[in-house]
Amino acid sequence: MPSPAGHLLAGVAIAWAAEAAASARGRRGGPPTDGAKPRQFTPLVLACAALALAPDLDILLATHRTVTHSLGAVLVTAVASGALARALGSPAIATGALCAATVASHIVLDWLGRDSNTPRGVMALWPLSTAYFYSGVDLFAEVSRRYWKPDEFILRNALSVAREVLFNRRPVAPPCLLIASGETTTKIEGEAGLGGPSQELALSFALEISELTGVCGLALDTDGTDGPTNIAGGIVDTLTVARAHEKGLDGHEYLKRHDSLSFLQALGDVVVTGNTGTNVCDLNLVYIA
Ligand SMILES: [Zn+2]
Asked: What distance in angstroms lies between residue 237's CA and the mean position of ligand 1's atoms?
């Protein structure tokens, strides 16, 4: 599935293309441009960007790619935005068509993207049909919005980008270094061992990349203190799990017990910087050779 950024850019691109076409035609009746030059972030362009993302709000309803990713949603958008445009004194048909096109772009992009969750694809023809449609083209690597926790989100999407670079050499060819930052979290329930969110992210990453070659991941806190530890984070690669097996360590068990420090320390894979005195962010690096 395309990323939220991909959907958003599609919405902006459609709005700008419509504005450019309207100004090229130089006549009334095209999408309203508010007198602005093309490629500006007018309220209509921002609305299109939001609408291109909107179908994924269904995740809030614990469902995904059903009625919000359908012909019905496109038609509802067309009617509602057209009516709103008319109330605001803007061209109703052109605005309705433009807004409907941005929602349709989301459905088409999802249809073209890779989807490993069943039922695969989108319920594109609802209310006429509740069948799911899936192109199988896999044009876009899978990214995830199903994982709300920042660490899961970073992990899944970092993996998707790494696979895209490794197997398809895009958006850049290896060797390359991917840099991400944010605030990693973890939820502790019950007994917990030693560790912190960045160390858990490093351990999770190691478990996911063990089938690959030439990938190395580092996750650390820039203040040098990950969770309640004096460890900054962890550094892992595609051989981490194999090295752990040789020592009789099962990474999944350590992850379950929130005992990532013990696992990484046993392998010599912790990163120790000492207290850096500055807390910029949680830093995540992925090197692909
Ligand atoms: Zn979607």
From this structure: 32
Q: Tokens in use for 16? A: 């700008």
84 burial type by CB count under 10 A (0-12 exposed, 13-18 middle, 19+ buried): middle
249 near 269, Cβ under 8 Å?
Answer: no
Amino acid, single-letter form, for residue 218: L
Domains contained in the chain, CATH given: 4-112 (no CATH), 150-288 (3.40.1480.10)
Strand, helix or coil for residue 181: strand
In angstroms and rounded to an integer, the radius of gyration of the C-alpha atoms of the chain is 23
Query: What local confidence, expressed as pLDDT, does residue 39 receive?
Result: 79
Helix (H, G, I), strand (E, B) or coil at 89: coil
> Hey, what are 95's tokens?
């605005």
Residues near ion ligand 1 (CB < 5 Å) are 55-56, 110
Distance of CA 48 from the midpoint of ligand 1 (Å): 15
Residues of the chain with pLDDT under 50: none
- Give the pLDDT of residue 54: 94
**At 65, which amino acid appears?**
R
> What's the pTM value of the predicted model, to 2 decimals?
0.57
Q: Can you tell me the distance from the alpha carbon of 82 to that of 125, in angstroms, rounded to the nearest whole number? A: 22
Task: Give the Å distance between the CA of 110 and the centre of ligand 1.
Answer: 6
Question: How many angstroms separate the alpha carbon of residue 111 from the centre of ligand 1?
Answer: 9
8-state DSSP, 69: G
Alpha-carbon distance of 260 to 198, in angstroms, equals 9
pLDDT at 38: 58
Place of tokens 């013990």: 262
- Contact, 126 vs 67, CB < 8 A? yes
Q: Is the separation of the CB atoms in 31 and 95 below 8 Å?
A: yes
